[in-house]
Amino acid sequence: MPVRDLVLLLLVVLSWALNFLTSAFALREIPPFLFTALRFALLALPLAFLLKRPPPGQWPRLIAVCLCIGVLHFGLSFSALKAAGDLSSPAIVLQSYVPMTALLAWWLLGERFAWRTGAAIAISFAGVLVLGFDPLVLDRPLALVLMLVSAAFLALGTVLMKGLRGLDMVSQQGWTALIAVTPLLAVSLVLEPGGLAALGSVSWIAWLGVAYAAFVSSLFGHGLYYVLVQRYPVAQVTPWLLLVPVFAIALGIAFLGDRPGPRLWIGGAMVLGGVLAIALRTLAKSRTRK
Predict the structure, then answer these.
(1) What pTM was computed for the model?
(2) In terms of residue numbers, what domain contains 82?
(3) d(CA 96, CA 125)
């Protein structure tokens, strides 16, 4: 990549890493499902004017993708971030969606992978087990479980997304925002009573976190990512995204006082190393096809 596009990619990585930090501050005042609903409500405002109608027969798959990613993945990932109280473990465990996606694609779509990819998948999951015994994680095991379930729904949504036709990334993001808002609000009303009523006393810091998640992380970050994947194969861009958890860990240490222990460093290295190996194998295969 030329320097210009590397800078754009770095901006994507930074915008997504900072989203962990700004969201963590906002989640101190706003419940996670309500936070997710507010994020998508703001995001839907500009994207509603850019939506394309899905082709006939695509609505059921589109709705399933929106529910998996927009409601279950984001709602549970923000719940995990709130429950964790740190940035390091959630940022790393979320990356387990990559090996999960490979396994689901093999199971549901019949996609095959070589033994090297299988070994990388095994290393990633073993890394989750290792970091799970770090004191930072053991103190709040619910966060690890929630993030693993969140990653599983992201993986399922990613596999289902492969069957979508006739929709660009902007339309997919816009439909996700529009379709997810109502179920998220319904879940919030049931599981987070009093959340809506308390919004009047929320500080500007929390509202800034909502705005950042909607406009910087989603609109700006995903917009730039869409530009880059139109210029380069997705497999060429994906390995660089492993910098997101690395930067998130650094932000957690700098601003939240995170103190990852040896097990988290070792387990994190195993998870990210496995994900990197999968990404590089995918890139190698895409180049071989050419």
Answers:
(1) 0.91
(2) 3-289
(3) 7
